[in-house]
Amino acid sequence: MPITDHRAARLLRVPERPGEKGKRSAPPAAVLVPAVLVTLTALIPLGFVITMTVATGWEDATYLIFRPRVGELAINTVSLIALTVPLTVLIGIGTAWLVERTNVPGARAWALLLAAPLAVPAYVNSYAWISTIPTLAGVWSGVLISVLSYFPLVYIPAAATLRRLDPALEHSAASLGLGPWSVFFRVVVPQLRLAVVGGALLVSLHLLAEYGAFSMIRFSTFTTAIMGQYQSTFNGAAANMLAGVLVLFCLFLLLTESRGRGTAHYARLGSGVAAAPVPARLGRWRLPAVGALAAVIALALGVPLVNIARWLIAGGAEVWTAGPLAGALVQTLGYGFAGAAVTTVLAFPVAWLAVRHPSRFTRILEGTNYVASSMPGIVVALALVTVTISFVQPIYQSTAVVVAAYVLLFLPRALIPLRAGIAQAPPALEEAARALGKAPPTAFLKVTLRLCAPAAAGGAALVFLGVVNELTATLLLSPSGTWTLATRFWSLSGEIDYAGAAPYALLMVLLSLPVTYLLYTQSQKAAGR
Amino acid sequence: MNHLQIANVAKTFHRTEVLTDVSLTVHAETTTAIVGPSGSGKTTLLRLIAGFTAPDAGSISIGGTPMADGGRLVPAHRRNVGYVAQDGALFPHLSVGRNIAFGLTGHGKTVQKRVDELLEMVSLEPSYSKRQPHELSGGQQQRVALARALAKEPQLMLLDEPFSSLDAGLRVATRKAVAATLRRAGVTTVLVTHDQGEALSFADQVAVMRAGRLTQTGSPFVVYTRPADRQTAEFLGDAVILDAELHGTVATCCLGAIPVKGRAEDGPVQLMLRPEQIRVVDESPVRGTVVDSDYFGPETTVRIQLHAEPETITIRHWNALLARPGEELCLRVVGEAVVFPES
Predict the structure, then answer these.
(1) What is the count of residue pairs from A and B with beta carbons less than 8 Å apart?
(2) How far is CA A397 from the centre of its chain?
(3) Which domains does chain B have, with CATH numbers?
(4) Does the pLDDT of residue A262 top 70, yes or no?
């Protein structure tokens, strides 16, 4: 399940540190060149779509784009987004408010549990539901699974914002004569705007990119249709044109989001320490509130876990030994570690430029990476298939290309924490080390690199989470004959071997849980910026 | 002995000239303060001495060894120069002890002994060694930063506004403690500050910087009482500037005939007095009426409308009772004035 956290970049945005009192030095080529190369590579999927459209020619392109099938897909995709996003926002804000701002019993436990569904890939959710209700199909089933899989993307930033929101604002509003409801809608809700708009964008991008979850319930979106085209005709113009339309949708969403953010300031103005908020008293609504939270958790976390357990019991010991489980686990861990390491290393020059050499150029460089990485996995995969076949055939379907896809998809996950980490290691510290007799490389290693190591590790963990659950690009790109947990799970559940798929689902959830916890705690720390 | 020698140094950032033809000599075991408003280039000069950046022209030598001279450049880590940054720049991931030991080589007991010694030099208990930087107050952090910089017995100590992030009371105490430590250690020191009071009280030599140039260098007493030009005079403290007519060594202005230091051509000049040179006396031909006053406790700033002239002047006085608006005062000038050519 790709979390395209380009959005979080803006939430975590660190104030720019002017260089030497505004006198910036030019960035060294050793950093600039790799950063530019990484950014150019990130543009491959976009470039691919444009090139393919041009190559197809105007007439063929219009023929392939303006046909009833595409209209059908557009209606499906748009209605999916239009129905899912408001529901995720409603559930995300509602649950966030309950756990952060009311005296609901067990608030801390609920707070964590509500983030946990992120550890369950959407296609595992789909598997749980379809294996329970085999007749599930159509847009409403898609909405059900999407809302349950993705509401934490709104919940996490909303909860973090509510937690950090200075109650003095609410007190001031109350002293100006506003009642509790007016305070909520006129003060609290506007403050949530960034979190909600950002969360909604993430949900929408996921809906555009998700393949497994919708394919399993036979609900067609652009992504599932492209996959279908690709599997039947291999690299046909039809698939490429659909990818073009998908990219347009994607860019349109990014544009809408940047408009929706507005220009107002939401950070706390002035100095002083924010007081802890006073929780609202729910009174006789306490039990219904607990009931609502329990229902959300039961559907989003209970259903998949119970179903995995059910199939494990049904399958017995045999399912653990039947397939290449250990091999798939090793392969997944290998991809996960390689993807995390390579992505983090490649994100470093871009993050470094953004913090140490802020300029119009480096801002564009950084922003390009966020936009480029918002492209759906299917587009990235198609682009890499085409590029490798046309230019570097020897590496087609090699591990290198799989890892490259992970870099393109998950770079922002490493970039955002690294940026914050580098900002916490100001140049003055490195200079202090040099004045104390350490040569520049030693000073860099012992101070700057050491100080951003925790941030780098956090970013790498998030990339790892993304890789472990990635299905679409891995299906298209991984060397034939190799299995990851996700692809093996996919092939087994495709054969309706639900029991056989269960161990793979369980392992993916178990691998994802610690990182989901990390993501949750990080968001709690970083909110409000 | 000339310990630090800076000759004709220039530095340009992005086509903006930050330093122009700067020359400065600092004698061994003395303290020099480079003082100037923000953006005057003083921090850049300090960073050139430390070796963090290279000058475009000119030369820098420390202890007779050229550090930057034409194309040759000794990198920062080979200069053995101590450097204390504005906020101390303590390494947040290391304890106080390991911060201080950062530049030291050697192991275990010898290092620990040296760390304890250094902590004692900056008046901190040995127990501080185990603490983390964020557990210290701002003043303590600065003292640890100083101990760290002293660890390798540097031949030159550079202090970049080390007291400016501290609050007023702590600033004076920390400054005194640091000055005493450096004097005991006998380290040649260069301090950069925008606070003229700090510069005047801390240093043996004050170098005033403005717009990338050193406008005057001398002892604190000399630069304060005999500033080279009007801007320098006003930057170093409150100044009363009056139009005057110079004849030889006496200038005549609305406060009477005043002996002057320095030279200027006879004729119209500008005359500068420090407010404390204008005293309230019982009887004098120069009179004025109090317009308003600011009470600061031990002293009062009084604005006076002179009777003979349309001008008002501002002086300092200890007696707030005399300084009520409308009160008539007799004034007399003590000491000599400084004259600048009419601008």
Answers:
(1) 76
(2) 25
(3) 2-231 (3.40.50.300), 238-341 (2.40.50.100)
(4) no
Nearest-by-Cβ selection for B77 from A20, A437, A451: A437
Q: Could you read off the pLDDT of A277-286 as tens digits, one per residue?
A: 667 778 888 8
CB contact under 8 A, B83 and A435: yes
What pLDDT is stored for residue B185 in this prediction? 87
Residues of A with CB under 8 A from a CB of B: 20-21, 23-25, 424, 426, 428-429, 431-440, 443, 447, 450-451
Q: Are A130 and A216 in contact (CB under 8 A)?
A: yes
Nearest to B93 among A438, A443, A451 (CB): A451
Give residue B107's pLDDT: 79
More confident residue, A405 or A25: A405
Write out chain A residues lying below 8 Å of B86, CB-based: 428
| pLDDT above 90 for B209 | yes
Interface mutation vs chain A, best among B83, B100, B155, B187, most A CBs within 10 Å? B83
Facing A447 at nearest CB: one of B81, B86, B91:
B91
- Nearest CA-CA partner of A81 in A259, A201, A257, A231: A201
Other beta carbons less than 10 A from residue A264's beta carbon: 9
Query: Using CA atoms, how far apart are residues B186 and B188, in angstroms rounded to an integer?
Result: 7
Whether A274 has a pLDDT exceeding 90, the answer reads no
pLDDT at A271 over 60: no
- pLDDT 10s digits, A121-131: 999 999 999 98
**Hunting for tokens 């250990």 — which residue is that?**
A326
Helix (H) or strand (E) holding A401: helix A399-423
